[in-house]
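Researcher: I'd like a candidate sequence for this fold, 157 residues long. If you have to choose between options at a position, lean toward the conservative one.
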C-alpha cells in the first residue's frame, strides 16, 4: 500500500482497488475466526485495517472516531458482519448437503429422545435405560444448540 501510495498519491480509486484485490481477501479470511480472537489480536487487525484506510484516503492525522463517524468509512466489524450475513444467506443456495446433514442429525436426536422417553420405536435399540452419553445427547439439546438453532445475532466483543 505504501509503494502504491508513493507512486500514485492522488489516485484514490487505484489504491482502493489495490486494497480490495490484494489485501482484503487476506483480511476477509479472518472474519470467521474474528469473534474467537483475543482483544489484542483484534486490535492489531483493526489497527492494520485503519492504517490501510488512512493510506488510501490520505487521512494521516485523522483519529479513529473521525475516520468512521465523520468520513463514513466502514469499521472492520461492520464489514465482517456484512460478509458473514451474506455467507449465511448463501448457505441454502450452495451448500444444501450441509443443511441436510444438520437436519438429519437433529432428526436422529429427536427420534432417540422419543424412543427412550415415550415409546420404543427403533427395534434394534435396547428399550431399557440408555447409557450416559446417549442420555446427555437428547437431554441437553438446549445446551448443545448449534449456530443454526439460535437467532442470527453477531457479537464481536
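Model: Candidate sequence:
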Amino acid at each position: 500500500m505504501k509503494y502504491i501510495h508513493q507512486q500514485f498519491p492522488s489516485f484514490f480509486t487505484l489504491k482502493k482497488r489495490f486494497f480490495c484485490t490484494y489485501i482484503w481477501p487476506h483480511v476477509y479470511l479472518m472474519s470467521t475466526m474474528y469473534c474467537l480472537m483475543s482483544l489484542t489480536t483484534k486490535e492489531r487487525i483493526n489497527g492494520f485495517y485503519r492504517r490501510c484506510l488512512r493510506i488510501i484516503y490520505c487521512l494521516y492525522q485523522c483519529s479513529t472516531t473521525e475516520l468512521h463517524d465523520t468520513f463514513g468509512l466502514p469499521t472492520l466489524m461492520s464489514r465482517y458482519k456484512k460478509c458473514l450475513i451474506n455467507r449465511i444467506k448463501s448457505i441454502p443456495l450452495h451448500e444444501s448437503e450441509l443443511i441436510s446433514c444438520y437436519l438429519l442429525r437433529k432428526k436422529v436426536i429427536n427420534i432417540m429422545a422419543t424412543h427412550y422417553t415415550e415409546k420404543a420405536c427403533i427395534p434394534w435399540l435396547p428399550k431399557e435405560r440408555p447409557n450416559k452419553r446417549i442420555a446427555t445427547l437428547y437431554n441437553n439439546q438446549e445446551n448443545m444448540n448449534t449456530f443454526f438453532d439460535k437467532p442470527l445475532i453477531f457479537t464481536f466483543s
